[in-house]
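Board notes, transcribed. Complex of a protein with uridine-5'-diphosphate.
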Amino acid sequence: MAKPRVVFVLGAPGSGKGTQCEKIVQHFGYTHLSAGDLLRQERNDPASEVGQLIHNYIKEGKIVPVEITCGLIEKAMVKSGKSKFLIDGFPRNHDNLSGWNEQMGEKAEVAFVLFVECPEEVCTERILKRGQSSGRTDDNIESLRKRFNTYTKETVPIVRHYDQLEKVRKINGGTGRTPDEVFEDVKQMFQ
Ligand code: UDP
Ligand code: MG
């Protein structure tokens, strides 16, 4: 059997990763796995032994140890029975990257990284708006500052790493662009 094909989707919090992923699923038949959603699901499971730990990391905008995140991703991949995945919001730091390579390097093929670019002011505005209804414990200005800080310090170097491997496809998800306009560009990356 062929190895599953993976596209990583990275970008600042609020850059529109999840929104574009939904559209990619509809058009191109990928299975969307949001690392953040998988972690929130695990956190909400009363039987989980790592629920409290995940809660603390998310609230502080810190990155959960890769054993947990990558374990959840692999479990979801296997459970889906599918072979084309969008992995949204992962890998976010060196620990994530090396953990992925160790655990999944032989089992999956990373096709490319879809990198959604968006200025911080635009992201901030979107997240604070989303925070009015999302119920997310990290969609508030304090957590958001920490998330941006983590993104700049830890995630941007990962994008740079894949860029050096010529695996990054960058799209403009920023100022004044509607999700549909952004998707017109995203489509080109998947043809
Ligand atoms: N998170 C993590 N590892 C991941 C993905 C997410 O630790 O691989 C945690 C991290 O604390 C992050 C939070 O989950 O700030 C929310 O991530 P999500 O991708 O849902 O939101 P985004 O910041 O991209 O809007
Ligand atoms: Mg998201």
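The radius of gyration is 16 Å. The domain at 5-34+82-189 is CATH 3.40.50.300 (Rossmann fold).
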